[in-house]
What we know:
- With 114 residues, the chain is α+β, with helices and mostly antiparallel strands.
- The protein contains two helices and four strands.
- Strand 3 (83-87) and strand 4 (95-105) form a beta hairpin.
- Strands 2-1-4-3 form a four-stranded antiparallel β-sheet, with helices on one face.
Amino acid sequence: MKKVKITVLRKTLQEDLAREYGVEGLTACPMLREGQVFYADYAKPEGLCDEAWKAIYQYVFALAHGSGGDLFYYGDWIRTPGVAVCSCNDGLRPVIFKLEATDIEAEIGYTPVK
């Protein structure tokens, strides 16, 4: 298993929806910053939002397990092998992430029970 590089590409705020449904003073995600980088494999990296992890972990898992040379979805989505662009599921202020396969070996952070 390899590590996957997760880069925060963009923090957004859907202003019209935020005005209609959001609380007063709602801003773009306060937890992450554009350009921030995380590395993940089987587990959520420290500092990454739990909800964002739930939205992107399937792609991280696929890239960590060898989809680095493949294009997702039959090549009709992302043009670069080993890359996925995903967002968290916050409909008012989604954060967009770039996921990249790496050659960095993952290390298990626990002792498996046999």
